[in-house]
Amino acid sequence: MKARRAVERSQSQKSWIEGVFNKRECSKIIPSSKDPHRCTAGCQVCQNLIRCYCGRLIGDHHGIDYSWTISAANGNENEQWSVEKHTTKSPTDTFGTINFQDGEHTHHSKYIRTSYDTKADHLLHLMLKEWKMELPKLVISVHGGIQNFRMPSKLKEIFSQGLVKAAETTGAWIITEGINTGVSKHVGDALKAHSFRSLRKIWTVGIPPWGVIENQRDLIGKDVVCLYQTLGNPLSKLTTLNSMHSHFILSDDGTVGKYGNEMNLRRNLEKYLSLQKIHSREYHRGSATRPGWGAAM
């Protein structure tokens, strides 16, 4: 009986997620190159070398007729590709649990791919009700860029200790880009050192663009448990997820290799979090408070 109820609950959760959360995909090819070579239907040059403004190669637009001619491309030369006009939504097919293998340790992270304009109340419901996170008393939003940089050892130690202490003592959520480069990696390093010393979980939410994530195919599936390879191609412009984040919201605007729209989703979620009331006997007997706010880097 318990097993059947668990299966029914899982199916209900999957149905709700597919009904609320969407992915985005490019629905119209607008070539970024106007190279006037003599193009014919099915041209291999177009398919394998020329990219659409969304960032994908022409041939990677599965389900779209890409046998355009150069005259058709010239006819669209004044048309500007945009997320709103040239992408379509459909129910997300990418959510579940990632198992990151790190030596002798395995880290489990919940994740979902969802459109960058997803409503914040839906995201918070997912995080609290489905992912079983606790509403934070403090939100630490970490910014600092995606480029790799070296942090002096003393500064890194101070940053790591301060970040972990703030999160541990306040029940905070840490929000970053969630990737293996830039400041997100330094946050991951701090959490990794902490995980060896303490069993206490720190909620760390990564919000990167779906289109910059390497090894995407590992993640596609509905309510799946997947192994994810964090070793990326050093020649690739894409990046991998940081294994020390406990949750990932993969913001999808239908583009590949581009940053920007994930910040809309992140700002909306952080603003919505700041409006929530926390009922806490520990801090205010029977009264309600709002999450505190902090920013780093």
Automatic annotation (TrEMBL):
BP terms from Gene Ontology: metal ion transport
Question: Which GO CC terms are listed, alphabetically?
Answer: apical plasma membrane
Question: Which InterPro entries does the UniProt record give?
Answer: TRPM (IPR050927), TRPM_SLOG (IPR041491)
Q: What sequence ranges are listed for the domain TRPM SLOG?
A: 110-282
What's a single GO MF annotation on this record?
Answer: monoatomic cation channel activity
State the PANTHER family in the record.
TRANSIENT RECEPTOR POTENTIAL CATION CHANNEL SUBFAMILY M MEMBER 6 (PTHR13800:SF15), TRANSIENT RECEPTOR POTENTIAL CATION CHANNEL, SUBFAMILY M, MEMBER 6 (PTHR13800)
Write the protein's name. Answer: Transient receptor potential cation channel subfamily M member 6
Recorded source organism is Lynx canadensis (Canada lynx)
